[in-house]
TrEMBL record:
InterPro entries the record matches: GH3 (IPR004993), GH3_C (IPR055378), GH3_M (IPR055377)
Tagged with keyword Methyltransferase: no
Domain GH3 C-terminal intervals: 448-567
Keyword annotations from UniProtKB, A to Z: Ligase
Name of this protein: Probable indole-3-acetic acid-amido synthetase GH3.1
Pfam families with a match to the protein in the record: GH3, GH3_C, GH3_M
Organism of origin: Cucurbita moschata
Residue ranges annotated for the GH3 middle domain, each copy included: 358-432
Family: Belongs to the IAA-amido conjugating enzyme family.
Amino acid sequence: MAVDSSLSSPLGPPACEKDAKALQFIEQMTRNADAVQQTVLAEILTRNAATEYLRRYSLDGATDPHTFKEKLPVITYEDLEPDIQRIANGDRSPILSSHPISEFLTSSGTSAGERKLMPTIKEELDRRQLLYSLLMPVMNLYVPGLDKGKGLYFLFVKSETRTPGGLLARPVLTSYYKSDHFKTRPYDPFVVYTSPNEAILCPDSFQSMYTQMLCGLLQRHQVLRLGAVFASGLLRAIRFLQLNWQDLANDIRNGTLNSKITDPSLRDCIEKILKPDAELADFVSDECSKEDWEGIVTRIWPKTKYLDVIVTGAMAQYIPTLDYYSGGLPLACTMYASSECYFGLNLNPMCKPSEVSYTIMPNMAYFEFLPHEPNTESDSPPKLVDLVDVEVGKEYELVITTYAGLYRYRVGDILRVTGFHNAAPQFHFVRRKNVVLSIDSDKTDEAELQKAVENASKLLKEWKASVVEYTSYAETKTIPGHYVIYWELMVKEAEGKWPSKEVMEECCLAMEESLNSVYRQGRVADHSIGALEIRVVKNGTFEELMDYAISRGASINQYKVPRCVNFTPIMELLDSRVVSAHFSPALPRWTPARTR
């Protein structure tokens, strides 16, 4: 189809006229980022002028940024919790938003250890849908022909709960998948899934995963991309195939659906498309019965062009395992979003995971940035910076004001500015704030812990082994206390062998060598920190950990392995699965820092 030349985009030649308009919209928003931000703030403050929250701070109808920043404090969830609790308990007065709060969106349950209730309004679905509509027009610039096949995406819903006042409380993706925006979405040849809505919307995670995998196998020659929300979700799907391929192959061979699938609408839907196929059943059995699963993704789905998963932040540790199972397929990180707000998208989605940067879309919310300078001592708090005024190379904590009633709210994400697209900044996601290990005066954050695990795991390469999952906790029952790191290992069965005790001890020391100087000083000079310990757990332990979290209300879509744990039942589960424990055999290197 010819594309109107007037709709061309600096990002590249669009695949179709619809894409051209989407790319043009991105250009318009990012070129005029400052003006768009001013308009967004004025709209939010005008419509919500009569809310209790804005009246509490005597904003008096002002809509300019200066008055807004002068009168409204920067807040955390704890500051807002009393207001949120009132809404949850049934107070329908305009506390935070002049528009009725339609539901609460629950946080992942592993961010800072708390499940938070984020208020939202109906029109926010339109805003989220708008950002979703921009993803494929960008991807089509880099990967042609995606309209010639389908996407095998493992998407799940969580059964929602209700607050005492009757409002739904559920994860943001459950809200979206259950909305008409998703269920009655118009046909788009670039966004066709192998999974029917009935499979995605089934609240039973086993039945949902089983039928989504079955549909993916039935349509294996049409699959052009595989995806899940997080990298861990896609690996869970591969593990599911390892455990259930015999039943799946049996269903394909006989053209009958496993009796474990009991959801009536789901059974009815799948039985209409399931026909006996002995050749496909033999193929699945032959591939899945092999000991070596390296490259299994492209062996089963040979036309796959990329994996669509989030592998930034803590998810980066899954990259080697994804590479193993996919044969090194490109990993695409397409968007940046949270329960509080959808923020932006990756305009170069086929870049290396380490180079992923998200362009903030200025129409999504009003954005401010709190300079993150942990090593700088100052009596005065840092001044917040507007979206267009951030500086390349600097790190900031994201602060948002939304249409749904969050005002100057600290999200807790630390971002590093990598550049600009037009006037809109691009950010690399560094980490969640305040995910730390601490024994004494030491403080180890998530990014530092991740780097230490990566460095130590290099010692496993000659054994054909790798770390597939990890978590940690600060053991303070010993004197002195010490870091405990739980590792689940994968060994290539055909050629690898289990790492020796000596190698595991060297891994402990390598982790310590990678940690900050305050930690190493505590080990060497202050003797305030004991030797780091690695506890190797049985294979499948972290799947059990996820199942436990889901049983307690976590969302299968949003679940992320906690990098720090201190909840007793989780500790007991991990310790009951330990197969060996190893301590650092020596002190790490440390010399006193030179004073200026």
